[in-house]
Sequence to fold (186 residues):
Amino acid sequence: MLIYEGKTFKNIASKGSRDGEFENCSFVNCDFSNGVFTSGKFTDCVLTNCNLALAKISNCQLNDVTFKDCKLLGLNFCDCSDFLFTVKFENCILDYSSFARKKMAKTNFLNSSLRNVDFTDSDLSKAVFANDDLTNAVFNKTTIKEADFLTARNYSIDPEKNNVKKARFSLYGVIGLLNKYDIRVE
Fold:
């Protein structure tokens, strides 16, 4: 397996396999859509303005990886290695991705689109959802205790099916906790 340390990769377009170990690396304006990253290892890396739509990331290790302005449509983060799994998202499109069964305490989702994302059985304790669109996101048996939803929008979370203890919601957003009752708040 190739090992890369402290390198910057710019304007790369590749649909093929990108296995290897990447430590303190930056990826800028790269198109890895439909690519294969199985068993890749990324530590302290930043991906900026990259397209990873529908990429295969099974057994991939993501340790302190930041995604900025990235297109991450349909990624199965649930297939990534659980070992040291730590990610952060800023201004990303994560629609139709899955984080089912992932332990993601303190994860930041900032200014991102999380439409139709699956958080089933995930641990999102103390996570921050700042200015995120959570339309049709699935929260089922999800731990969101002490999570921050103050500026998130369009979420629907059933407090009876999720651990919401001490989670923070705006008064406007509380309606997303009542959807199952099919009531009107005027």
